[in-house]
Amino acid sequence: MEQEELYLLITRYLARRTSSTENEWLATWVAQSPENERTFEQLKTVWQSSKAPAANAETAAALRHVKARLGLPAAEPTPAHLPRRPRYQLAALVLVVLAAVSGLWYFVAQPSSPAYQLSQTQAGQKQTIRLADGSRVTLAPQSRLRYPVAFGGTYRDVYLEGEAFFEVSKDAHRPFRVHSGTLTTQVLGTRFNVSAFGRGQHTAVSLVEGKVQVLDHQNSYLLTPGQQLRADQITGRIYRQAFDAEQVTGWRHNKLIFKNEKLAEAANQIERLYDVKLVFADSATAEVRLWASFDNEPLPAVLDALQLAGSLTCRREGRVIYLSQQAPQAPLK
């Protein structure tokens, strides 16, 4: 995002015209680097100096630094020699900067808005994250987790895009909440899996141990061990069902289990785990049902098993794998 666009977004926030997604983006941007935080500190100093009768040496130094970042001259011409139009432009820029500082500093520095970190995995990668409260999160391939550097306030909030397995430390006074798409999973201390990849796929919360409460925009659902809550992003249907823990959480150990699943659904897991792209010859190929299990096997072995289990032919070109159904054999005469 360009600097001017960022300032415009901030002024919209000050006018209370931004969405919750935009607010979260702003908080994430601020927490991305120490340089961003230092910039906010310096801008805050400039903002505070606008209320003081005179600027001290620290304020003057911060002002010079900010001007350098904004491309403004270090020494401003006197009003008598300053052309009218640039003077108005400078005044407008200063107003935007001051509004940005006052609004964003309030947004970032409040106790309820801690500094966040972002962890992200690529296809074929997994990552284990230890949170400030001692909880452990195993992040699946092609997933993102945004979490605070230190937990404060009433809740321990994290934000997930993709899939992760959570092992949450107990804290009876501060519930742990996972925000994933339209669902919020709230626990005190337990082990569970959340899958929320988007792109038309379902969102699922699968409880292995303890108890969790899952909330959407209207209802609340209590899960017990062995239960899974699934939310279909296309139909909007939400339902509870039993689940196979080994099948749902096997990705942590590079294990894939398919029980009468469509190839199109199985392909998503294969692509994430092995960093490949599966292309179907036609819709009929995508509808092929699979019964197969792969326990930390190399990609060639998986492709060989797919051909046998689904009567498929595979053609590999680098990271792209083309799949088609085998032509039926003519009956023997």
TrEMBL record:
It comes from Hymenobacter cavernae. Residues 120-213 form the FecR protein domain. The chain crosses the membrane at residues 90-108. Residues 255-322 form the Protein FecR C-terminal domain. InterPro entries: FecR (IPR006860), FecR_C (IPR032508), Ferrdict_sens_TM (IPR012373). The lineage of its organism: Bacteria, Pseudomonadati, Bacteroidota, Cytophagia, Cytophagales. Gene3D superfamilies: 2.60.120.1440, 3.55.50.30. This is Anti-sigma factor. PANTHER family: PERIPLASMIC SIGNAL SENSOR AND SIGMA FACTOR ACTIVATOR FECR-RELATED, PROTEIN FECR. Keywords: Membrane, Transmembrane, Transmembrane helix.
